Amino acid sequence: MELVTVKTKFQVVIPQSIRKRVRLDIGDLLEASFENGKITFTPKTAIDRHLAEGLGNLAQGRTHGPYESATAAVAALERRARGRNKSRRKRK
């Protein structure tokens, strides 16, 4: 177990041996939590909310296509967007 010092602005330096074991790099995110008198930091990955929603849709089989071409895919998306715009106007 290694000791660290709480610095001004409550910063701590994670020892190099621990950083290497968890492959922690500059800019990585850590989730801080406090439970049973202990502070823990867990490495986390930031993911865009819309990307996470899309991956969830994909996992649940809510997909479109396949399409014959990129042009066909764009046309399908445009039709869907027009349909959504019409339904939003009706709600107002």
Helices and strands in order, then pairings?
Elements: H1 16-22, E1 29-35, E2 38-44, H2 49-59, H3 70-91
Antiparallel strand pairs: 1-2
Uncertain runs are none
Instruction: Kindly state the percentage of residues in helix.
Output: 40-55%
Biggest sheet layout: 2 strands, antiparallel
> Which class of secondary structure composition applies to the elements?
alpha+beta
**Distance from first to last alpha carbon:** 61 Å
Number of strands: 2
Mean pLDDT: 87
Total domains: 2
Radius of gyration: 23 Å
Order of the strands making up the biggest sheet: 1-2
Report the total helices: 3
Report the oligomer: single chain
| Shape call | elongated
Order of helices and strands: HEEHH
What amount of the residues lies in strands? 15-25%
